[in-house]
């Protein structure tokens, strides 16, 4: 999450309150620095003199495995199997106003919100990761895990657009962060809940179930949100490119829906930032947390991906036209995708003007540019989510460097971009004297701002207490999170490298969907840069996924096939590995039904299981045998 200069109401549930006040929670540069911050022990560096190590310093394959694992902690809906003991089914049956299934996808951060724009950005980035660095993922046995998350994001987004012949609607926000109360004040529903998502629908404060909020257009109504539409269209078009080698039929569905949503965004031009069109308190809080800065970068990004997906010239033309209208190229984030659109267009059709724009952009981020750096080498975008900005630039640096590799005259820039990416990702993995990735490396964060890894449905000591009491404990207790949130990239340090590892100071310790999105791709990019043969595939072997906890439900613990080297400590066997592009089996990249080219079954079992008698068993397309049970997840056994 990223907040900007909040005016008027401010969500203060993050400070253990459930009302909204005007005390100014603040933008990334606001607020006072905590007194108990610690400077990591790593050396001060001269970034201009930094040279990437000739051999890999960190196990990027292991970090990649864990970064994907973070998204399992965020997943919403019915699980195909329970990889983490402390996360189960949640929001099953959640629907929109028009009956659309909104149970799937993943949650934004510590909360259970699904803000449209950031979700679309994350889904598009996860797809781009596969498109750009899929071969590196395959080499370290992570390809189908990447495909899995592309599919999950796409399936959720396919349900967001409806057209009844009279009115077109795009669901742009699911969940309630601050709902205006009857007295004229506002109570925060989602942010005021500090329990596990599995119990949200039953235990949500104020008895307010999550709502869906829409952009819409008709002959008489124009409540357009071209920004959200652009994010969704980009994500679905990118997903179609990533998934086409696996499932061309599903890829066609994605690109068809991408076109529908893209056309909706162009037909009903507008932004959710227009208060008159979106006066609801829920939209107001969307604007406070994720302000829109215009629609041209989203239109350009969606157009670029649709051009890549369809090869239709109109999208290339539209992308260039939209880029000509953007107000500069400053960063790459959920808020600004213009530079990503330029990089994609240059890959499709290299041209001197676009290349000059890209080169100028990177010059500001590379050593000697205008961007601030911390003493230990982190390029510093903004205070809130500082690591996210560096990871995002590292990713696009590696992606653009690939397009330069064949041109000798571009070799110096290619080397600069690759060196930059190595330095930034190595900073995150430990070069500054600590790791910023939960469960990876030395001195990693133990108290990230993440609710379900602290208050899980299997370990929720204050379940019977009010949410005010639960929230106060969550924020102020010195108890580390009870479960390891593997792979989560925390917000990051001050511009002095200082950090504080507690949940109260969420500007530094928060984790979100978009923090990990490009970070995941950058890790795959560094596997590619150093050569996949220098890395061994990682697995869940030795990870504490919560199954030894006394409250873990052993009946739902998966039992994987022999030779599954992805989830277990087994050595890979010939029939338990995955041929790139094929349907996964247990072991290999086995991660989800969706990865095998069929929809992620809503009931957690394949379609042919739906008519099976209770108590029988079927093999899902993970190669995991699932006994069918009535209610909840059955044990996955072999």
UniProtKB/TrEMBL annotation:
| Gene encoding the protein | PHI863
Protein keywords: Carbohydrate metabolism, Cellulose degradation, Glycosidase, Hydrolase, Polysaccharide degradation, Signal
Matching entries from InterPro entries are given as: 6-hairpin_glycosidase_sf, 6hp_glycosidase-like_sf, Glyco_hydro_9, Glyco_hydro_9_Asp/Glu_AS
The signal peptide stretch is 1-22
Which Gene3D superfamilies does the UniProt entry name for this protein?
A: 1.50.10.10
* Assigned protein family: Belongs to the glycosyl hydrolase 9 (cellulase E) family.
Domain Glycoside hydrolase family residue range list = 60-523
GO-annotated biological processes: cellulose catabolic process
The terms under GO molecular function for this entry are: cellulase activity
List the PANTHER family hit by this protein, alphabetically.
Answer: ENDO-1,4-BETA-GLUCANASE (PTHR22298)
Give the source's domain of life in one word.
Answer: Eukaryota
Q: Where is this region: Disordered?
A: 578-610
Enzyme class label: hydrolase
Please name the catalytic residues of this protein.
Answer: 501, 510
EC code: 3.2.1.4
Tell me which SUPFAM superfamilies the record gives: Six-hairpin glycosidases (SSF48208)
Is RNA-binding set as a keyword in this record? no
Is Transmembrane helix one of the keywords? Answer: no
Q: What is the name attached to this protein's record?
A: Endoglucanase
Give the residues annotated as coiled coil.
none
Q: Where is the composition biased (Low complexity)?
A: 578-609
Catalytic reaction list:
Endohydrolysis of (1->4)-beta-D-glucosidic linkages in cellulose, lichenin and cereal beta-D-glucans
């Amino acid at each position: 999450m990223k907040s900007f200069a909040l005016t008027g109401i401010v969500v203060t549930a993050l400070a253990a309150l459930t009302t909204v006040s005007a005390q100014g929670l603040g933008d990334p540069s606001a607020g006072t620095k905590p007194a108990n911050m610690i400077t990591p022990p790593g050396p001060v560096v001269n970034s201009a003199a930094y040279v990437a190590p000739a051999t890999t310093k960190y196990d990027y394959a292991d970090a990649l495995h864990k970064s994907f694992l973070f998204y399992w902690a965020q997943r919403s809906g019915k699980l195909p199997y329970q990889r983490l003991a402390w996360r189960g089914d949640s929001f099953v049956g959640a629907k929109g106003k028009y009956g659309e299934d909104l149970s799937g996808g993943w949650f934004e951060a510590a909360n259970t919100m699904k803000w449209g724009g950031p979700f679309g950005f994350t889904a598009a980035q996860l797809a781009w990761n596969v498109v750009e660095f899929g071969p590196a993922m395959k080499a370290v046995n992570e390809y189908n895990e990447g495909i899995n998350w592309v599919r999950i994001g796409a399936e959720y987004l396919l349900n967001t657009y409806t057209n009844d012949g009279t009115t077109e609607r795009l669901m742009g926000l699911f969940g309630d962060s601050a709902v205006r109360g009857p007295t004229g004040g506002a109570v925060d529903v989602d942010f005021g809940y500090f329990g596990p998502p599995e119990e949200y629908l039953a235990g949500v404060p104020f008895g307010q179930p999550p709502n869906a909020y829409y952009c819409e257009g008709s002959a008489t109504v124009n409540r357009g949100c071209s920004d959200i539409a652009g994010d969704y269209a980009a994500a679905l078009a990118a997903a179609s490119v990533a998934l086409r080698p696996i499932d061309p039929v599903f890829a066609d569905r994605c690109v068809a829906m991408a076109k529908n949503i893209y056309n909706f965004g162009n037909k009903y031009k507008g932004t959710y930032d227009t208060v008159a069109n979106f006066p609801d308190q829920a939209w107001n809080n969307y604007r406070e947390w994720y302000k829109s800065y215009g629609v041209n970068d989203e239109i350009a990004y969606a157009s670029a991906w649709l051009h890549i997906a369809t090869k239709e010239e109109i999208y290339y033309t539209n992308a260039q036209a939209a880029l000509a209208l953007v107000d500069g190229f400053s960063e790459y984030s959920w808020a600004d995708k213009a530079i990503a659109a330029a990089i994609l267009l240059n890959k499709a059709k290299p041209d001197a003007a676009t290349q000059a724009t890209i080169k100028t952009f990177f010059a500001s981020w590379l050593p000697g540019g205008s961007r601030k750096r911390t003493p230990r080498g982190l390029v510093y975008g903004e205070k809130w989510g500082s690591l996210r900005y560096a990871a995002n630039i590292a990713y696009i640096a590696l992606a653009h460097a690939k397009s330069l590799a064949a041109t000798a005259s571009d070799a110096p820039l290619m080397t600069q971009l690759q060196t930059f990416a190595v330095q930034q990702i190595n900073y995150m993995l430990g070069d500054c004297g600590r790791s910023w990735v939960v469960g990876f490396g030395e001195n990693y964060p133990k108290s990230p701002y993440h609710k379900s890894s602290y208050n899980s449905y299997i370990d929720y000591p204050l379940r019977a207490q009010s949410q005010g009491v639960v929230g106060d404990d969550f924020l102020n207790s010195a108890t580390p999170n009870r479960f390891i949130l593997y792979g989560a990239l925390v917000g990051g340090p001050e511009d002095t490298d200082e950090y504080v590892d507690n949940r109260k100071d969420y500007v530094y310790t928060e984790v979100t969907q978009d923090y990990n999105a490009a970070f995941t791709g950058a890790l795959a990019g560094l596997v590619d840069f150093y050569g996949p043969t220098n890395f061994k595939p990682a697995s869940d072997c030795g990870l504490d996924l919560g199954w030894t906890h006394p409250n873990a439900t052993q009946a739902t613990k998966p039992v994987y096939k022999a030779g599954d080297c992805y989830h277990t400590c087994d050595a890979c066997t010939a029939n338990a590995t995955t041929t790139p592009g094929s349907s996964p089996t247990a072991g290999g990249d086995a991660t989800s039904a969706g990865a095998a080219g069929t929809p992620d079954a809503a009931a957690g079992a394949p379609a042919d299981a739906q008519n099976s008698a209770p108590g029988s068993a079927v093999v899902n397309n993970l190669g995991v045998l699932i006994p069918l049970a009535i209610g909840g997840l059955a044990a996955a056994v072999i």
